[in-house]
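Can't paste images in this forum, so I'm doing it all in text. The chain is below; anyone willing to post the predicted C-alpha cells underneath?
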Amino acid sequence: METDRIEGMVTLLCRIEHGDVAKHFDALKQSGLLDSIDVKKDPSVDKLKDLLKRNRLWLWQVRSPFDATHLGWTGLVRYAGPAYVFANFGPQAHFDTFDIPRECIEAVSKAYFANCPEEDRLFLYVASDLLDKISASVMELGFDPAPDIKYDDTPNESIFIMERHTFDAYYAEGEGTAEEFEEIDDY
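Text version of the structure:
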C-alpha cells in the first residue's frame, strides 16, 4: 500500500508504521486516541505494533503542510467490528471550520476503498455534540446517516456509513478515483 505520505490542501498525512510506534506512543496515549480506537484494555506499544503490522490499524500523523506542526491523528480501524475511519485531534483542538478533519476522513476513505477491493462499506462515528456542526460535511463526503444501527458501546455517537457504490459514485469519475489512489503518493 503506497500511503506513506498523503498531501492535501490543509493537511499532510505521514504514515506511522509498526517500527515507529514506540516514539509516538506517549503522544498517542495523551491525545486520548487509544481509548477511541478500542485498545484501552491493552494500550501497549506491542499491541499497536501488532495491529499495524497486520494492517488491522492504519495510522497517520496529521501535520500542517505549511510548517509541519502536529495537528493530530487519523486512520482506520479494522479489528473492532466493521471497519471505521477516525480523526483525533485531542481535547485541546479547536478548528473554525471542518476542513482539516474533512480532508483526513476523505483521504483515509479513498485509501481504504482503493486498497481493500473486497470491502463494501466503511463506518464513521461522530460524537453527538459535534453532529449538528459537521453532519452536512460528512454527508458531502459520501457518508450516509445510519440511525437504525446502534451499538451498546457507542451511545453518544451517531453512525454514518459509506457504501462502495456510493464511493464509486462520488469518486469514480475525475479527481479522486480509486486508480489514482493506487499511486497515493501523487495525491
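The mean pLDDT is 84. Residues 5-186 form a domain with the Aminopeptidase fold (CATH 3.40.630.30).
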